[in-house]
Amino acid sequence: MPTDLKGLFDFWDGYVKILYCEHQTWNEVATEVLFEVQAAFDHVSRIWVYGENEADVVSKAYSHLKRACLDIFKLKLRVTLDLFDELKSTPIDLIESGRFESRLNKLVAEIREKSIEARRREGRPDHDDGLAEAFELWTEVYGLCDTLEKKYYLNSDIEWAERKSSRAKWRDRAYAFIVGGVLVGLCQNFLTERLWLWLKGLFVSPRP
């Protein structure tokens, strides 16, 4: 934990700002993130506005910045699970004979397991220690979410699988059309022949 302004702004520039900038690329900065960042810098201003002790101000500002990071972690998790749902709607089972999908499912299971544990630690009675442990776990979750996006969602084989699946669907439709046409033709021939025999029986007298 930083104890002076230099340490606080090192944390901001080397960690929070990176997460914040990525979060901005999601089209809209979440209100809760803005509130935490604003609260952090409001505390910093109190050193000069109200003459508050630097170490105390830095401690409070640091907590708000960590809270902003936690909010971004959770939003990242939500975005990642949406990407996973989108992936599951594509024919990823065709990639690597199903091994790609198996690895993806294991990754998502790990993401969910660690995010649940991170949330649990946030609620521990020893709030400060619990928050520190939660922050560490959420950092791991964030990295795993990045892996899912870059290694799986943006995988070039996804497009290949979609093309292959599309060709297979068109092929199956063509087969169904041909087989259906043949069956319809056979049925028509059969019915026509039966109708002819029936009509022949009506108008042609049998031999004595």
Topology overview:
Layout: H1 5-24, H2 31-49, H3 54-88, H4 99-122, H5 127-153, H6 157-203
How would you sum up this structure, described in words?
- With 208 residues, the protein is an all-alpha fold.
- The chain is 83% helix and 0% strand.
- The protein is built from six helices and no strands.
- The chain has helices at residues 5-24, 31-49, 54-88, 99-122, 127-153, 157-203.
- Helix 3 runs parallel beside helix 5 (127-153) and helix 4 (99-122) runs antiparallel to helix 5 (127-153).
- The radius of gyration is 32 Å and the shape is elongated.
- The relative contact order is 0.08.
- The model has no long low-confidence stretch (mean pLDDT 83).
The structure class reads: mainly alpha
Order of helices and strands: HHHHHH
Residues in helix, %:
over 70%
Main beta sheet: strand number and arrangement? none
How many helices?
A: 6
Would you count the extended β strands for me? 0
Question: Uncertain segments of ≥5 residues (pLDDT<50)?
Answer: none
The whole-angstrom Rg is: 32 Å
Strand content range: under 5%
Overall 3D form: elongated
Mean pLDDT: 83
Termini separation (Å)?
115 Å
